[in-house]
Amino acid sequence: MATDDQGRWDKKHATEEGHEDASSFLRQLFEVGAWRIQAGSALDVATGRGRNAFFLAERGFRVEAIDISEVALKEASKLAEEKGLTITFRQVDVDHVELSESTYDMILNFNFLQRSLIAKMKKALKRGGHIIFETYLIEQKALGHPKNPAYLLGHNELLELFRDFRILYYREGRFVEGGKDAFRAGLFGQKVG
After folding, report:
1. How many other CB atoms are found less than 10 A from the CB of residue 192?
2. CATH number of the domain to which 25 belongs
3. Residue 147 and which of 35, 58, 71, 140 are 20 to 30 A apart at CA?
4. pLDDT averages per 10-residue partition of the chain, 193 residues
5. For the chain, what is the domain count?
6. pLDDT value of residue 144
7. Which is it for strands 165-177 and 180-191: parallel, antiparallel or unpaired?
8. 61-67: which pairs have CB atoms within 8 A and are 24 or more residues apart?
9. Is residue 128 included in any domain, yes or no?
10. Does 189 reside within a domain?
11. How far is it, in rounded angstroms, from Cα 103 to Cα 60?
12. Would you say residue 177 lies in a domain?
């Protein structure tokens, strides 16, 4: 496991207080109602303290949530128990995680970019399964974290990464999330092959 990454994220999560709401992008996709998203098995990649995993579990999904931070996962597990939600939390190094083929009906990826993981996520989705992916654009480095270009998407890069999927919704630009401005790209897609 990447102990430097784990230590950095454990420290960040240990100093956070309160609990964030689910991503506004995720909430909007479910609230629009244009897509009748059926509950099933779901994977939340880089779940942090579980905000998006909770959202899916509350809607009947069987959720597995993975992250590198033991501190974040302990907090998420405690809160899930308080809420009466059954979520499987698993500590992993996403650089080396193995995902079973055709396992999930839904995969979430928020505020995280590990390009080498995308092919594994695609294989892990069942045919007809959905992906909801939102993370930072290259312009984000002018506003703050993250600044490393390795963790920032180029323009239309997310569309290109999922060109073999049916794109149901896409957005790219400057949006407010959690009261903060950020440059983001978000995609809702369906595995067709």
Report:
1. 10
2. 3.40.50.150
3. 71
4. 49 52 94 82 97 97 96 95 96 89 97 96 98 96 90 97 97 88 96 90
5. 1
6. 86
7. antiparallel
8. 61/105, 61/106, 62/86, 63/87, 63/88, 64/88, 64/90, 64/104, 65/89, 65/90, 66/90, 66/91, 66/92, 66/94, 66/97, 67/9, 67/91, 67/92
9. yes
10. no
11. 17
12. yes
Q: Are strands 180-191 and 125-136 parallel, antiparallel or unpaired?
A: antiparallel
For residue 188, being part of any structural domain is answered with no
Q: Which two tokens stand for residue 40?
A: 């099933």
The whole domain housing 57 covers 3-12+21-181
pTM of the model: 0.89
Kindly list the distances between the CA atom of residue 188 and the CA atoms of 70, 102, 138, 165, 179, in Å, as whole numbers in the listed order. 29, 18, 20, 10, 23
Alpha-carbon distance values, 124 to 28, 46, 113, 171, 191 (Å): 24, 16, 17, 24, 10
Task: Give the dihedral sign, CA 39/159/178/147.
Answer: positive
* Structure tokens belonging to residue 22: 């689910």
